[in-house]
Design the sequence.
């Protein structure tokens, strides 16, 4: 799919091209970092839902290119449903992060060592059913969190994309149970019109009375069952009956807008002259768009007039 | 606060015995009697969650949505208005429920591929089954109970695989691979032979359950497919999609093996998404439900149910039937259809008649004057059925038929004198049934345009009227009212001929009604207070309503204009339900479309617009379409629908971005208010709300905008403005004086700055000056601010101020009159509110500049919503932000310095309420004379705050959950305590 001229005039898109990032998302991570500095002195990190890979690029630059000391032993693992072209110093593989096997594989890659940072920019296929989309988004976060509890060392940090919707406050209370501080942050590079924001969880404090156990036969929800039992009241009494409906515990996380007012406004229309536009066109490293959407064949058929609204 | 009416996405429909249909509507179930077209029961199922699906076994139901599930009996369901006390929670999101063979147990399939077996009566969880190592997330899945021992679980993964496993043995049968992307639906046929599935790749695949082989791959839908169902003994499959269509596929045994073949397509819902589908196999009716909240019914046998729908004749068959010999290449040149049958004229001058009663063709007579070029017209008045044949030689032949098709007399031949040639002849009758008016047009511009008045019983010419032919006039349709003949022409023109005045000034001409070309129909709708309302259609898809006055010379006013969805528009009329129905062609189809409710009534593959055709009303609500295709005469009977076409009409298919209520109750019904909704789907709808029932009715869907709506607001009792991206801003006038309902017409659009406008107009405000003109302020996504003067005399916008705030996007603006001065407020994505003084040379002069008075950061990021209270000495801003907070800022007025200058404002107090909501606050609205503030936010909580004094912090009076997701806008009928909340759907609330 070609980029419309509107996309080309998006200053973040333009800047991403100039700096060789595969997606404008890179600036979201960078702007979050400006506020929270979680990218300093990292040794081992996991980037979940990483395709096309701009977060991995940021991580790779920070940890390797800009590193002053020894880079031996540093590691970046990136996973996505979609294939990703290689990035220096990043180990990538294609898998579903909600599949427990995927998490086992990441753990294997780390050997016995713990990571100090886990991030997930995951976004599911949005169906348009708001409740389902929100649930699946939260499940991606829970899968990321599942891995986090297995691989993150105490005091480590976790960052994930969220949609600020109806049930987001339930998630805040669960995260607050595992981290010292939980903040909802919106970088200026994330469009104001989208529900997107990021949950920044600082200082991992594994609960004393629960140890994570990854099991291929256990779903994410079951995995956390005992962990959140206290706050979720998921099972009232025993498991032999479905619990009656009850309101879940909700906490509001503080909101922080980051990226500074002098950074570009992703909702604004900027005026670019012809020269600027030409420069964007010519820029060598293209921003990657979804290379192989599942509906590619359908698009081809539609273009050739084989699909239509009539019989 | 209490919600009284709700329209929003409906995710599931299910037929049950006794012609009843269960419809999931948010957290409610609505039960309809389909044959009676009646809502018989509404019951709340869940407290917050939406109902996603329903399984039924005799008198037991298993209803699910999200993690919620409710096992209820039919008696419980119909015996109460609220059964949410029976709501239980599953540990994981439920994708499907099903009863076992005994109906005693319910299977719940969760999105982590686990099946809970629950005892219906006790609610005990008897088993938890899952497939080892397959616990990743599913978007879809289903359970098929084949018999006691065989229960198949079909799990659709996010990576293209469909895992079919046996519930009782816990073993995997197949991992069906072939699809790409997430699987969105999978189902098994009743006989257990086939699995059908669909995914993000937009294909439907049919698999063999016993071998795991892919049998067929079918394409057709242009977007994602959400639901599939086998019916008609597993010989057919029905699918519904994001592309708003519902399609029928037949499972056919061909030489290639078993194949899915596209059989029919129905356009059923508004952009976008059809979620639910079910089929009543006994009656062969399908029901669908969509994001637009509509519950649509489809007669799956619409064109075969009565078996008399289609007749076709080729010229040979007619020849044999009539026992005549036609010349080689002789074809049917024209026809007219009456109740009794069809009268046709061939290129050999043969006049034929087909009677429906005995299905027979006869040759009536032959007339050598009507060889090659001929036109056939017909009209029925007071039981006189008259056909008028004409040629290009000014010959007319009028023939009259009885109700049973017998010729009365042998017809009347006449020659229209004084014309060189005739290119078009048309006829019409008015209220004076005894007269038929015939228009005769010559291609020679110097010839007269002739109108003949003919006595319908004697067929004698009573009168002849000659008019100088109007310039570039090519007649295309005609109608009559009193002594005025209205003739449509090419170039989107209508000419009115006064029969009492044949002089040059007896012709009144309306040009360029729209940008289309040929006027295809003119129809009188109603007359009120000497204003005659006409509906006018244009082949290029436009239609307008004209209010015409005949007293004191003819004058007209366009009170409505719009464009149809697509295709050619041939005519439109009001049906018995008061809905405006259009018909015409789109590509190779003939269509009839309900324009008021926005759905297709029928379509028929006739080959396209370029052919001889006619649509004729017969009987009650029935039509006959006659057309020629591949030199065959086709006769299609369009019966009146055997099932209601819809049970509830629905509203927008996408998010409502803004809504605005007319400040004054309707003149025709004081319990009703007009309101307008603007949506992401790029349309604006003109609706009414009943203040007692909260019920909403839509009249028109305006399609002028080509980008998603940003704002829409009534600026007076009859004017409203809408704006969107691509610099679109339109001024509309609403006319609510006619009995049929309100009309809306675009008066003017704001001039755009460049050839390729790509700025979004984010908000606007107006301040009326004397005599209906006003000052308009517009704010843009590139931080620019403009002020305009709209002059109502000339109907023109002129820009008077252009300036820029910074580079960030401006989100809101308000024009505020404070004592003698006009101020402009803006709020932007940088969290600031800025107040400017509008510079004018004197009080009445146009603005000529903006001088910043105060700039204040009040939110961390985008200030999404604002309302303003003006008191003697202060301005109070109530704002809602992307930072989840509500802020109250009081600005104190600062008098002009003694040395000269202007008064200003400074912030005296402000209070920011953090984390008021857990997500963006999207709208703020003061009501009850500014004593209360209503806020909506994305967390779906509607809150009412005490704003009676400026005391801070704000005190929360009330808060309530709304089922409207993406809650984004609201409006209040001031003084009448009705609130409308918009988002993905619309709710009416009573305060
Ligand atoms: C917004 S993109 C990530 C962009 C990335 N951070 C970057 O900077 O290039 C979201 C990604 O989430 C991935 N995703 C969604 N669901 C997933 C799942 N279940 N497992 C793995 N990846 C998933 C999608 O394939 C998509 O590539």
Sequence:
């Amino acid at each position: 799919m070609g980029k419309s001229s509107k996309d080309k005039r998006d200053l973040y898109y333009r800047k991403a091209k100039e700096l060789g990032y595969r997606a404008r998302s890179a600036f979201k991570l960078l702007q979050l970092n400006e506020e929270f500095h979680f990218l300093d002195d990292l040794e081992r990190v996991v980037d979940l839902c990483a395709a096309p890979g701009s977060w991995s690029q940021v991580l790779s630059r920070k940890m390797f290119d800009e590193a002053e000391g020894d880079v031996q032993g540093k590691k970046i693992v990136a996973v996505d449903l979609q294939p990703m072209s290689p990035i220096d110093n990043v180990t990538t593989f294609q898998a579903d992060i909600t599949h427990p096997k995927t998490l086992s594989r990441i753990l294997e890659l780390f050997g016995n060592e713990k990571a100090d940072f886990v991030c997930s920019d995951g976004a599911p296929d949005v169906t348009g059913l708001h409740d389902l989309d929100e649930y699946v988004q939260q499940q991606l976060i829970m899968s990321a969190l599942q891995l986090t509890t297995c691989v993150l060392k105490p005091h480590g940090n976790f960052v994930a994309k969220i949609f600020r919707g109806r049930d987001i406050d339930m998630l805040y209370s669960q995260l607050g149970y595992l981290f010292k501080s939980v903040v909802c942050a919106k970088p200026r590079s994330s469009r104001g019109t989208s529900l997107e924001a990021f949950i920044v969880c600082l200082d991992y404090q594994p609960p004393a009375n629960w140890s994570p156990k990854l099991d291929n036969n256990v779903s994410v929800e079951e995995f956390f069952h005992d962990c959140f039992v206290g706050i979720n009241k998921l099972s009232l009494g025993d498991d032999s009956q479905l619990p009656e409906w009850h309101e879940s515990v909700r906490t509001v996380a503080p909101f922080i807008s980051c990226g500074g007012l002098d950074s570009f406004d992703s909702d604004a229309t900027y005026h670019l002259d012809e020269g600027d536009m030409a420069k964007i066109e010519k820029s060598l490293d293209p921003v990657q768009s979804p290379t192989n959407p599942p509906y590619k064949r359908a698009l081809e058929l539609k273009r050739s007039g084989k699909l239509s609204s009539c019989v | 606060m209490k919600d009284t009416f709700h329209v929003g996405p409906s995710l599931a429909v299910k037929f049950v015995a006794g012609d009843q249909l269960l419809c999931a509507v948010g957290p409610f179930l609505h039960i309809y009697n389909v044959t009676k077209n009646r809502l018989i029961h509404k019951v709340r199922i869940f407290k917050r969650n939406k109902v996603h699906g329903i399984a039924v076994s005799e008198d037991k139901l298993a209803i699910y949505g999200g993690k919620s599930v409710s096992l209820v009996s039919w008696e419980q369901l119909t015996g109460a208005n609220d059964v949410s006390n029976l709501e239980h929670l599953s540990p994981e999101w439920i994708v499907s429920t099903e009863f076992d063979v005994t109906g005693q147990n319910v299977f719940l399939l969760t999105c982590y591929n686990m099946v809970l077996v629950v005892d219906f009566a006790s609610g005990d969880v008897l088993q938890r089954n899952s497939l080892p190592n397959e616990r990743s997330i599913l978007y879809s899945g289903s359970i098929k109970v084949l018999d006691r021992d065989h229960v198949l679980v079909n799990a659709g993964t996010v990576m293209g695989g469909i895992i079919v496993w046996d519930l009782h043995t816990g073993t995997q049968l197949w991992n069906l691979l072939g699809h790409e992307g997430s699987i969105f639906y999978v189902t098994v046929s009743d006989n257990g032979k086939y699995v059908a599935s669909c995914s993000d790749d937009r294909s439907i695949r049919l698999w063999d359950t016993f071998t795991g082989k892919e049998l067929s791959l079918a394409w057709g839908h242009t977007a994602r497919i959400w639901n599939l169902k086998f019916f008609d003994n597993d010989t057919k499959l029905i699918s519904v999609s994001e592309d708003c269509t519902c399609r029928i596929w037949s499972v056919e045994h061909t030489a290639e093996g078993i194949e899915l073949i596209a059989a029919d397509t129905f356009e059923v819902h508004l952009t976008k998404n059809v979620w639910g589908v079910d089929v009543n196999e006994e009656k062969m009716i399908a029901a669908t439900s969509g994001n637009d909240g509509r519950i649509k019914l489809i007669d799956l046998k619409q064109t075969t149910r009565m078996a008399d729908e289609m007749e076709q004749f080729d010229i040979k068959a007619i020849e044999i039937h009539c026992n005549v010999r036609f010349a080689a290449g002789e074809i049917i040149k024209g026809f007219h259809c009456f109740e009794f049958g069809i009268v046709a004229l061939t290129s050999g001058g043969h006049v034929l008649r087909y009677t429906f009663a005995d299905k027979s063709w006869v040759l009536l007579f032959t007339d050598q004057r009507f060889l090659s070029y001929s036109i056939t017209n017909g009209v029925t008045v007071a039981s006189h059925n008259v056909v008028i044949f004409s040629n290009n030689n000014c010959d007319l032949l009028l023939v009259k038929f009885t109700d049973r098709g017998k010729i009365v007399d042998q017809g009347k031949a006449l020659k229209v004198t004084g014309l060189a040639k005739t290119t078009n002849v048309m006829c019409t009758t008015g209220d004076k049934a005894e007269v038929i008016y015939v228009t005769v047009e010559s291609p020679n511009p110097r010839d007269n345009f002739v109108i003949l008045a003919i006595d319908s019983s004697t067929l004698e010419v009573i009168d002849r009227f000659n008019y100088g032919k109007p310039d570039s006039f090519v007649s295309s349709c005609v109608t009559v009212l009193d002594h005025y003949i209205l003739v449509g022409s090419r170039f989107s023109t209508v000419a009115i001929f006064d029969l009492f005045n044949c002089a040059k000034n007896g012709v009144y001409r309306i040009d360029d009604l729209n940008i289309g070309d040929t006027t295809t129909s003119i129809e009188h709708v109603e007359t009120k207070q000497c204003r005659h309302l006409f509906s006018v259609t244009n082949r290029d898809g436009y239609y307008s309503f004209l209010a015409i006055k005949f007293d004191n010379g003819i004058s007209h006013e366009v009170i409505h204009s719009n464009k149809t969805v697509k295709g050619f528009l041939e005519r439109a009329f009001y049906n018995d339900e008061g809905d405006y129905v259009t018909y015409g062609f789109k590509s190779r189809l003939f269509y009839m479309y309900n324009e008021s409710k926005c759905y297709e009534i029928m379509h028929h593959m006739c080959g396209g617009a370029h052919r001889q055709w006619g649509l004729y009303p017969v009987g009650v609500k029935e039509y006959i379409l006659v057309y020629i295709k591949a030199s065959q005469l086709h006769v299609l009977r369009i019966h009146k629908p055997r099932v209601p076409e819809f049970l509830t009409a629905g509203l927008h298919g996408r998010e409502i971005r803004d809504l605005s209520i007319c400040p004054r109750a309707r003149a025709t019904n004081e319990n009703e208010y007009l309101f307008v909704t603007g949506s992401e789907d790029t349309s604006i709808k003109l609706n009414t709300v009943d203040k007692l029932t909260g019920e909403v009715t839509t009249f028109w869907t305006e399609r002028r905008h080509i980008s998603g709506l940003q704002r829409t607001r009534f600026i007076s009792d009859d004017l409203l403005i809408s704006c969107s991206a691509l610099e679109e801003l339109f001024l509309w006038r609403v006319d609510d004086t006619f009995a049929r309902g309100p009309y809306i017409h675009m008066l003017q659009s704001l001039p755009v700055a460049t050839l390729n406008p790509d700025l979004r107009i984010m908000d606007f405000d107006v301040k009326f000056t004397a005599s209906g003109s006003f000052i308009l302020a517009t704010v843009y996504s590139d931080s620019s601010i403009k002020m305009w003067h709209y002059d109502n005399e000339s109907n023109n916008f002129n820009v008077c101020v252009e300036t820029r705030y910074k580079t960030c996007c401006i989100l809101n603006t308000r024009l505020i009159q404070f004592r003698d001065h006009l101020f402009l407020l803006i709020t932007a994505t940088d969290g600031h509110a800025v107040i400017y003084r509008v510079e004018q040379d004197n009080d009445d002069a146009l603005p000529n500049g903006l001088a910043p008075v105060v700039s204040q950061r009040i939110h961390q990021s985008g200030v999404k919503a604002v309302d303003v209270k003006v008191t003697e000495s202060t301005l109070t801003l109530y704002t809602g932000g992307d930072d989840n907070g509500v802020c109250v800022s009081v600005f104190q007025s600062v008098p002009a310095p003694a040395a000269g200058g202007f008064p200003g404002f400074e912030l005296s107090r402000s209070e920011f309420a953090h984390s008021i909501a857990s997500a963006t606050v999207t709208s703020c609205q003061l009501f009850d004379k500014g004593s209360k503030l209503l806020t909506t936010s994305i967390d779906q909580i509607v809150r009412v705050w005490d704003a009676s004094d400026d005391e801070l912090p704000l005190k929360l009076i009330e808060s309530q959950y709304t089922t409207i997701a993406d809650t984004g806008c609201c409006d209040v009928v001031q003084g009448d305590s009705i609130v409308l909340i918009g988002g993905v759907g619309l709710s009416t609330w009573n305060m």
